[in-house]
Amino acid sequence: MPRKVRRATFHHGDTKRAAIEAALALLTQDGREALALRTVAERIGVNHRALYRHFASLEAFKAEVAALGFGRLADALEEVSPGQPRALVRAYATFAFAEPHLYDLMFSLPLRDWYTTADGPGLAMRRVTAAAVAAIGSADAQARVFRLWGLAHGLIGLYRAGAWRARSDRQAIQFIAGLV
User: Fold this and answer.
1) Class of domain 57-178 (CATH, top level)
2) When comparing pLDDT for 113 and 74, which is higher?
3) Which of 14, 24, 69, 149 falls 20 to 30 Å from 106 in CA-CA distance?
4) What angle, 0 to 180 degrees and rounded to 10, lies between the N-to-C axes of helices 58-78 and 15-30?
5) What pLDDT, in 10s, does the model give residues 73-104?
6) What homologous superfamily does CATH list for 10-55?
7) What is the pTM assigned to this prediction?
8) What kind and span of H or E run contains 23?
9) CA-CA distance, 39 to 61, in Å (whole number)?
C-alpha cells in the first residue's frame, strides 16, 4: 500500500504577537468596527480557530490590543514633568489624535472590569493613572486628573464628531491644553 503523503503543517511562529500587530494595522486602516478574529487570522495566514489558543474571545483579544494602547499612552504621559498639567493634557490629546482608532478601542471597553486585573490592560491603565497623577504633582492630584481627563476626553470626542472646529488637529490640541 502506498504511503500517504504527509501534508506540511503551517506554523506561524509568534501568532499572538502577529495577531496584535495585524489588529493595530487593521485599526489604523479600517477603524475598530472592522476588528474581527477572522479578519486578523486571514491577515496573518492562520485559521481563526488558532487565535483561540491565545485569546479566549474577541473581547479578550480587544483587551490585549487595548493594553498595548494604554502602554503607549502611559509611555507618553510618563515623559511629562511633575507639576505640568497642561503638558499632561497636551500629551493625552496628542496620543488621541495620533492613534484615533486605537484610542476609540481603548475607551470602548468596560475599563472598570479591567482596572484591577494583573493581565489585560489593567497594569497599563494603572501606569496611565500613576503618570497622570505624577504630572499634576499636587495634593488633590487624583481629583484633578479625572477633571482634566473628562475635559480632554470630552473635547476630543466633540472635535472628532464635528461639534467644534479648528484649523488643524494640532490647533485643536493647543486649544484643549490651553483650557487647563
Assistant:
1) mainly alpha
2) 74
3) 14
4) 80
5) 999 999 999 999 999 999 999 999 999 999 99
6) Homeodomain-like (1.10.10.60)
7) 0.86
8) helix 15-30
9) 13
Q: Are 37 and 61 in contact (CB under 8 A)?
A: yes
Q: Is the dihedral of CA 138, 143, 145, 147 positive or negative?
A: negative
65 within 8 A of 27, measured Cβ to Cβ? yes
Angle, vertex CA 20, rays to CA 155 and CA 103, nearest 5? 0
Q: Give residue limits of the domains in the chain.
A: 10-55, 57-178
69-108 as b/e: b if 16+ CB within 10 A: bbbbbbebbeebeeebbebbbbbbbbbbbebbbbbbbbee
- Within 10 angstroms of residue 160's Cβ, the number of other Cβ atoms is 15
Burial of 1 (0-12, 13-18, 19+ CB in 10 A): exposed
Residue 7 has pLDDT above 60, yes or no: no
Q: Could you give the 3-state DSSP secondary structure of residue 123? A: helix
134/138 Cα distance (integer angstroms): 8
Q: Name the H helices within 33-106.
A: 37-44, 48-51, 58-78, 85-98, 100-106
Would you state the cell numbers that stand for residue 178, as one nine-digit string?
A: 490651553
19 and 1 Cβ atoms separated by less than 8 Å: no
Same fold flag, 10-55 and 57-178? no
